[in-house]
Amino acid sequence: MPYRITKVAILLLTLSNNNRYMKLNFLKHRWQKRLFKFVLIPVVVILVLAIVVNRYWSPILASKVKDVVLKSSDGLYKADFSDAELHILRGKIILYNITLKPDTAVYNQRKRLHLAPNTLVELTVKRLVINHAHPFSLYFQKKLNIGQIILSEPKLKVTYQLNHTKDTVVKDHRTAWQRIAKSLKSVHIGNILLNDVNLDYEDYSGNKVAISKLRELSLSANDLLIDSATQTDKSRLLYCRDIVTELNNYTGETPSGLYTYKIKHLKLSTLTSQLNIEGLAVQPLKPDNFFDKSRKDRLGFLADSIQINHFDYLNYHKYRTFSARSLSVAGGKITAFTNPVKGPDDGSDKVKTFPNMLIRKLNLDLRVDTVKLRRVDVVYSEFNKKTQQTGAVEFNNTSGTILNLTNNPSAVAKNNISDVTLVSYFMNYGRLDVQFKFTLNDDNAPFSCKGSLGSMDFSRLNPATMPLAMVKMTSGKVKKFSFDIAANSKVFKGKVDFLYNDLKVVLLKPDTANDRLKRKTIISIFANLFVIKHNNPDEKGKLTSSYVVFKRPKDFAFWKTIWKTLLTGIKPCIGLDEKSQKATKDRIDEHNKNKAERLKNKAERQKRKAERKKLMDEGKF
């Protein structure tokens, strides 16, 4: 285009300056002269200006851009580009090979003064195109109006380090509009598009640096407007009506290397303050590899969709504070597999596994008003070394709400209770309703829980009881199981009711040679005849309830303590109270003693028989 403009301009200038050599017929009439004066001459002037501006504007713009970036960042950032084109008639500007880099010396100096920002950015752009710029509006009305800005193949490196948890001292408290008001009345950009962004994100806020590489990333900003009306408009982020970020097919790895996480699709909109995630998967290594590297339990998490509403992204980005009105998880699975090769206990108090203590110890300022769960399966698995089998307890199709999930000091001061209400189906059959109340600001970790399990067959428990407890439920039906417990880190107290009919069991023992479990026939008969209480209430209508006081051992984790507390309450209901257990133990010991005596006598008889046979064979008998 510059070549074409130059050619036309030279031709027109030649025609206008060589009147003595050429007689122009169209200038004979008066109206033709006026047309030439008011139309053709301005066109020639504009064309000449376009040539001059396009030729000399690039170095002027480069100098201006460098100066603006340097001043606006107080010397922290330096900007540059290799070349620029201005197409004044089309309102188009093209910049090539743009770079934005931080000055590390300035950053380190600010860090020593505790004034360094948490986030440091380095940007490289091959080509930046500005479309529909309006230079006349800028010149005559002092309004910078741009239709669209497109950044092609931007490479972005972001480094995050938590240098401070609130804004550092700012000398200039003016708004952006107040800063530009002397030279510009307004700045408006219709769309800003960043396509095929190559983003490397390094997070130094944890114990280990977390590096994320995002490739299928796109960003768009709509309706950026800086003027007197928008300078205090809180509905805009960075003066934009909406900023949309989309990410596809992202895969990452935790610093420990134990887990990989995948996201099928992520979208964040600042207009709606909504973050949507589809196809989230946090997957551990295979069991052998995982337990070779870790003594912790192996966890997994899948979610079909997650929606976070009224998410304060800006504060999360700046200070790692997670604030949202609600968080919804729809469809998913949580798995936990206890470590079968745990090493010696380190002696630490497992009170840190209590949910209210876990929230307090998070390396994150957390505040979510409501968490909603829908159709989530929870599976707990454990390997039994005696049986060499794995048993699982399942809570299927779990739904519910968690209110006031927070460790934010001001939020906890207003409300220090987190309420949890869940509905699930135990072993995919019996309906389980549970309510928890956790106190969030007490070192003793107090909480309460109560719940009830509806009708279900005992046989539904066999996938858990057979490999883990070597007990098979052959008949019986749970009518209702309920509990009400008040607890803290030291003691669990409460009441347990267990109503059922026709309970019968078979006790098992491992047959490792055939990789199966086989019956302990005599003891099973003994247990069903003399130990197990088959009905509660019994045939006379007597109901057995259990009041529990369970002192938590220091090395007992939260869920293990709850299970042991419930089990302590269940045993008396089925006839296994302390007195019955002692009597049963005595009977079993007596039975084993008699059995051993019988085996001993049998062995002696066989020995004497063998000796007589030998004597007879020798003719000495």
From TrEMBL:
Where on the tree of life does the source sit, at the highest rank?
A: Bacteria
* Composition skew (Basic and acidic residues), residue ranges: 579-604
Q: Sorted alphabetically, which keywords does the UniProt record give? A: Membrane, Transmembrane, Transmembrane helix
Where is the segment annotated Disordered?
579-621
The residue ranges crossing the membrane are: 35-57
Q: What is this protein called?
A: AsmA-like protein
